[in-house]
Design brief:
The protein is α+β, with helices and mostly antiparallel strands. The chain contains 19 helices and 19 strands. The longest helix has 27 residues, at 123-149.
Length: 537
């Protein structure tokens, strides 16, 4: 019997479908499909919201025929249990081995916090229930990857025998030789046009199952190319690491004090030169040279080791990457001198020393014991949402100056109408205590305040031409009704859930909606949709 796919209602509910209000029973079969993609499409057309981790509608595969309009609560329960377990295991796998499935953002803290909130589990409870199965999944993926990699020989020659003919035909690069862990290695200066021709990664010579590192991310490679092309006079590229499959010859140059470490590195033309770390830089260089051929004679340092097989290559990749610490997004924003939005926000903060002293310029999120209130990342988000100024479309100096005046006035108005806000910024209320007791000390509330300011004062526009001094700011008066305490009823289910702050898209929208309701204002459409989801939950 062939497998069919069915869309079911996950709960008893009433939804508007194609303009008509319809009621559904829990486990009711709504449609039947022969292909999974058509079931997915039908499910997507119906799905109106998510309650916790579970959608209002689900689709599943069944070898047993199901009847449209009939209810199958036992089947639904089994699917929910299995889906919840899969989701929980996947979350724990991501926490325990964040790079198991390839490239991705290194800082996944916020995502994991959201996943735990969605599953309604603490980290300890998640580990207690699922650690054994999560570890088994990690072991399975690693073992499967290793087994595939060992099915074929990756390189044709293993370097101990150097034929005379290969010695006579070599590629030569100026270089330096050294020793690490008792093994000789070399640092060569390789021109860009030679690098892209000789050093391979993801091509016909290296099958995908035999790679010793992550797959190529085309967007990341293009970003490196764009960076080089946009900064041809001051770009910086770190060294690339590669392995060579045959013995190399190093001809030292006699220089006083060089100890035979400087010379020419000769690599047989029959050797395979495989990149272990830096394939995105290589791909980015290739794209940059295609766009600007004048770059082809510039060079990049390549650290070259003698290839000792797949296991050693994989260990090299692990050793290189496992000990790198990615700088936080806040530190990147602090140090990035090229980004005009970063420069504008930092200059703005220099003119507001009291607020600047409360901003963490180093960490993406503020620690519980810090005397800082918000990270630079959170404050940048606040400024962008409030003013409507985007990093991708920066206005001129006059527009930025007016937007800065708007931010200053908005913050002053907030201090006027929310006394605890002013005490917090002035340091009269310690940041640690504010985080413990108040919502106004958290990034989700700060962003919600920005949403309110942009929609209520600017009507969803931008602040570049707003008449700051000529405006009476009546929209800020209702903020007198803000109760800053976490325990206040107006924040429950919005930015506060079970006593904990929840920084989600709906959390921001629902908190902004609460600010609108203080003044009896009509909610914008997206905030009203979030409000409707909250009431329907």
């Amino acid at each position: 019997m062939s497998t069919r796919y069915y869309v079911l209602s996950a709960k008893e509910q009433t939804q508007t479908v194609r303009g008509r209000l319809q009621s559904f029973q829990r486990g009711e079969v709504l449609s039947s499909h022969t292909a999974e993609h058509t079931a997915y499409k039908a499910h997507g057309a119906l799905d109106a919201g998510i309650n916790g981790w579970l959608s209002d509608f689900i689709y599943l595969a069944s070898d047993e025929p199901l009847t449209k309009g009939e209810c199958y609560p036992e089947l639904l329960e089994r699917w929910i249990t299995e889906a919840y377990d899969r989701d929980a295991i996947a979350t724990l796998v991501s926490i325990m081995a964040p790079d198991l499935h390839g490239a991705g953002p290194r800082d996944k803290h916020d995502s994991h916090v959201y996943d735990l909130e969605r599953l309604d589990l603490s980290l300890d409870a998640l580990k207690e229930r699922y650690q054994q199965r999560a570890q088994a999944e990690i072991d399975r993926v690693v073992a499967d990857r290793q087994q595939r990699a060992e099915q074929q020989a990756r390189l044709a020659a293993r370097g101990t025998e150097l034929v005379e003919s290969a010695q006579e035909h070599t590629y030569s690069f100026p270089g330096v030789r050294g020793v690490q862990a008792g093994k000789e290695y070399y640092i060569a200066q390789v021109p860009f046009n030679v690098l892209v021709k000789l050093f391979t990664f993801d091509d016909e010579d290296v099958p995908a199952e035999l790679r010793a590192q992550r797959t190529l991310n085309v967007k990341r490679a293009q970003a490196i190319a764009d960076y080089m092309l946009g900064n041809t006079s001051d770009y910086v590229l770190p060294a690339i690491t590669a392995s060579v499959s045959q013995e190399m010859r190093f001809d030292p140059v006699a220089l006083p004090g060089a100890s035979d470490r400087l010379g020419m590195l000769n690599i047989p033309i029959t050797a395979t030169m495989l990149i272990n770390d830096g394939q995105h830089r290589r791909a980015g260089i290739e794209r940059a040279v295609q766009e600007n051929p004048a770059l082809r004679h510039e060079t990049v340092a390549v650290v070259i080791f003698y290839d000792e097989g797949l296991a050693r290559a994989q260990q090299m990749f692990s050793d290189i990457n496992a000990r790198q610490v990615k700088p936080s997004s806040a530190l990147n924003a602090t140090y990035d001198q090229r980004n005009p939005f970063n420069a504008w926000v930092k200059k703005m903060l220099e003119g507001m020393p009291e607020l600047r002293s409360r901003i963490d310029f180093e960490n993406a999120s503020v620690s519980g014991n810090s005397h800082k209130l918000w990270s630079l990342v959170a404050f940048k988000k606040f400024v962008s949402v409030l003013t409507g100024v985007r990093e991708t479309a920066m206005p001129g100096e006059a527009g930025l100056a007016n937007a800065e005046r708007f931010v200053r006035r908005f913050l002053d108005e907030s201090r006027t109408h929310i006394p605890q806000w002013g005490n917090m910024l002035a340091g009269l209320l310690p940041a640690k205590g504010a985080r413990t007791d108040y919502v106004i000390a958290h990034a989700v509330w700060l962003e919600a305040l920005a949403v309110y300011g942009n929609r209520a004062v600017l009507d969803g526009g931008d602040a570049t031409r707003f008449n700051v001094d000529g405006h009476d700011w009546p929209e800020m008066v209702p903020l007198c009704g803000v109760d800053p305490h976490k325990s206040a009823a107006q924040w429950q289910g919005r930015c506060v859930s079970l006593g904990r702050m929840q920084r989600t898209s709906d959390g921001v929208k629902l908190t902004a909606a609460a600010l609108f309701e203080l003044g009896g204002k009509r909610l914008p459409a997206d905030l009203q949709e979030a409000e409707d989801r909250l009431k329907a939950a």
